[in-house]
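Can't attach files on this board, so I'm pasting raw text. These are the components:
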Amino acid sequence: MDKLIISGGGPIDGEIRISGSKNSALPILAATLLSETPMCIGNMPHLNDITTMLALLRSMGLSVTLNEKMSVEIDANTIREYTAPYDLVKTMRASILVLGPMLARYGEANVSFPGGCAIGSRPVDIHLRGLEAMGAEIDVDEGYIRARCKGGLKGAHFFMDTVTVGGTENLLMAAVLAEGKTVLENAAREPEIVDLANCLQAMGAQIEGVGTATLTIHGVKSLKGCRYDVMPDRIETGTYLTAAAATRGRVKLKDTREDILESVLLKLEEAGAFINTGKDWIELDMKGNRPKAVSLKTAPYPAFPTDMQAQFTAMNAVSEGMGTVIETIFENRLIQIHELNRMGANIKLEGNTAIITGVERLKAAPVMATDLRASASLVIAALVADGDTVVDRIYHIDRGYECIEEKMQLLGANIRRVPG
Ligand code: EPZ
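---
Top answer:
Structure tokens for the assembled complex are below.
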């Protein structure tokens, strides 16, 4: 297993380009199942999760051609299998996103039941109940969700009792080909859902209320392929901004957007960062100052994202003062604090709240990550630790951060990958 060795030191400083969004690319790749003609998806990040999704589509028989510059052409007409097998689903829960589109277009889908994972139990009951409301018959058999709908899905009025990103995406992709009108209430409003809806509309879907908590979908008979570029990755953007803030440095991030990061930028300003933005760039400068600890609570968009919580916890660990971080989305997502404490952080855990008292510097230690964003927080901590930190199990990082060591090196960090 590869490891990262990071020698902590001075501030990071420089300019890099932000990649396409992982959490937008994954549902958009699943949406290609809905198209009657080939689709071309551009600005795809080069990440292990994307490779897994492409492997899943290929295993079902879709023809997938990857072009140079990470755009991919997909033709769903060659589909042979309506199954997402255990081997692929176990490595990536987002495989569940093929359920809605497969059922809507082919009337049949078998998807291995995704279990819990390091950050929490992560049920998919709302995905299943929404599809049942549209007329699907669903059984769980030998670890597989087996869904059928004879005569096609029918539009329905469905209220989601928890705001769920994946659930909203699955039901939206099902509803675009369901007969009649579907109303999805208490829908998630994450920018990745807006991106998916924009792509579906470019394919011919009729969706009202995009970006709001009520999505009204008028089902159409068929959808056509289009060319679509996925949006920039807001979490990758936020991670590099937070790394710069923690190290008292400066970064300019290109090919990204500030309008999808408001809650994060606000907290960085509260921590003392000077932020400038343009149409497609964001610059953060700490002017050499130590960050001030901030308090935050994660919640669905537009509130503070759970996917940025670990990185802010790491920044708080070396900030001036005390901050509390409350995680409300996933029950086990503060797990990284134990590794941060091994590096000399002063963090107490009370239920779903981390109480962080900033220390001047951390100390290098061998650490390992249990999930993607926890790994990012350990990289940030390592940048502000004295000595060489070895971060183990970095396959988590490779699921969601394109070329992290190259990008960090461009920013002046002393980081290298060693094969395990
Ligand atoms: C998406 O996961 C993201 N993944 C996650 O990104 C992100 O942390 C999460 O949304 C929250 O923003 C992708 O987009 C591929 P949810 P998802 O359904 O869709 C509960 C990363 O690091 N729930 O919005 O799986 C659930 O348990 C990650 O990139 C139900 O109770 O998350 C959780 O408490 C990891 N029943 C809450 O809703 C359901 O049927 C939100 O989960 C579905 C969800």
